[in-house]
Amino acid sequence: MAKVLFVNPIIREEDDPRHVPYGMALLASIAMREGHLVQVYDANAWRAPDAVLAQILKADRWDVIGIGGITTAYRSIRHVVQMAKEVAPQALVVAGGGFLTSMPHDIMRLLPQIDVGVVGEAFVSFPELLGRLDAGSRDWAQVPGLVWRDGSGRSHLNPERPLMQDLDRLPYPAWDLFPLDVYFKNSMALFSEEGMLARRRLDVNASYGCSLICRFCFHLGIAGDLEHTVDRDGQRDVTFTYKRLIRYHSPRYVVDLVKHVRERFGVDFIGFLDENLMTMHQSSGKKWLTEIARLWIEEGLQPQCVREGVPHDPERCAGVHWGGTSHATLVSCSHLLYGYESFSPRVLKTIGKGATVETNERSLRWTMEAGIRPIPNQMIGFPDEDFDSIRDNVHAWNRLGLNALPFFATPYPGTEWYQTYKSRILGQYGGDLEAFLLDLGDATRVTAIISKKFNAVELYGLRQLMVQRDLRRIAAYEIEWNRLHRAADKEEVLPA
Questions:
Q1: What are the pLDDT digits (tens) for 92-110?
Q2: What CA–CA distance (Å, rounded) separates 414 from 227?
Q3: Tens of pLDDT along 362-403?
Q4: Pairing of strands 146-149, 155-157
């Protein structure tokens, strides 16, 4: 049996640790079920100095050091794998998750400390890797879903691993390996009164996939969108498509899981991590969430304040509140996060989501009428953003009584935007992919610009004018912009 150390990298250095890494907790549970010895060092939760990480790496003779995360964790992942090879050279360094799946060969080139990568879903590939290691083999060529390097350092991508169909075969995540007190301290989610007053929140994933094809969104191999291509030299690589494979845990599994965390950890709020909870409900024939709600009530999980129709009081409210994500065309919880993106009809047609201004506004009205507080997310800096779309957003905010600080449209690896504008993106970083990865954040600041019309200074300034509802100065700058560019119709055309 292998000794496995999982390291959860720092996700958002500027924010408190709020979410136990669900995928890592699942893989830890799977590995333990297979008989392996597992420990976790949660660097994101502890935010400790390097001396602590060094102590952990020296604490045992680890056979495997596993790490993964999304692309915005790249800086921390790079640091951890470098230290791992220095301090624990005997360990096999295994990486996975979105940062690697979106560009396996690039990551293996940038981080030579990684011995093996798990591309896409790891539920089967990772335990198979551990089994081979147990048997004394480091021949990875026959294991689907892995990227590995040969003696010369060249990376090789194996055929893709089929996605698991029966999700209910998965064990419950090994939450107890993580410092839950740290996460519980940061349970509050400022999206609803119930979320804001939460004291012991945990997150669950009830489904995998999304039927939408949003060009700004990455799925990273767990939604049926990942395919492998083979070039003329026989080199295999990943590409992302519009194909979708939607998978669900059964309502019984979901409710039993929530009962488990309620009894084991005393949770009072569940955050659904599903990529788009309401879209998944729609794809199920509008039965899935309805059945979850029925069992939620039947099993005694319905919050007392909801059952009695009284204001929420965390001191006396028994039961479990929950919140999740939705789409503007769907309203069916304590809060729903809506990705409205824009209130410009033209921009909405270009992003592939299928929403309209009318569905955005209708969902807001319906959700308010249902007593649920909707949280609208917006973005600016789309490829086709212009002064009209900027004004469309401000007019909608005034009309609907909304306050928003838009995110900046960001071409994360694994998105259609990244594939379409890759040469332009890298051109802004002198051709240095790693410089771009190190610059990526949570879209609250500008990184690579894909707007045809506006530069970084203009996007920052226009966003501030939008927040202030200063339509007069927006109009004045449009005149100035046109003067500087000689004519509005001479916009830059982005290379494919």
A1: 999 999 999 999 999 999 9
A2: 12
A3: 777 766 666 666 667 789 999 999 999 999 999 999 998 888
A4: antiparallel
**What residue type is 166 in one-letter code?**
D
| 335 in a structural domain | no
Strands (E), 86-154: 92-96, 116-118, 146-149
Is pTM beyond 0.90 here? no
Q: Show the domain range for 387.
A: 378-496
* Structural domain contains residue 8: yes
- Report the candidate in 335, 344, 338 with the shortest Cα–Cα distance to residue 376: 338
Q: Among 169, 203, 222, which residue terminates a domain?
A: 169
Q: What interhelical angle do 22-33 and 125-134 show, nearest 10? A: 40
The rounded distance, in Å, linking the Cα atoms of 112 and 481 is 46
* CATH code of the domain in which 102 resides: 3.40.50.280
Please say which residue of 154, 169, 184 terminates a domain.
169
- DSSP for 276-334 reads THHHHHHHTTS-HHHHHHHHHHHTT-S-HHHHHT----TTT--S-EEEEEE-TT-----
Select from 239, 249, 331 the least CA-distant residue to 292. 249
Task: Label residue 50 left, alpha or beta by phi (over 0 means left) and psi (-120 to 50 means alpha).
Answer: alpha
370 belongs to a structural domain: no
Could you tell me which residues come within 8 angstroms of residue 2 by beta carbon, excluding any fewer than 6 positions away? 31, 36, 37, 63, 64, 130, 133, 134
pLDDT in tens, 318-372: 889 887 765 433 344 444 555 678 888 898 888 876 678 887 777 777 666 666 6
Q: Does 185 fall in a domain?
A: no
Average pLDDT over residues 143-166: 94
Domain tally, the chain: 2
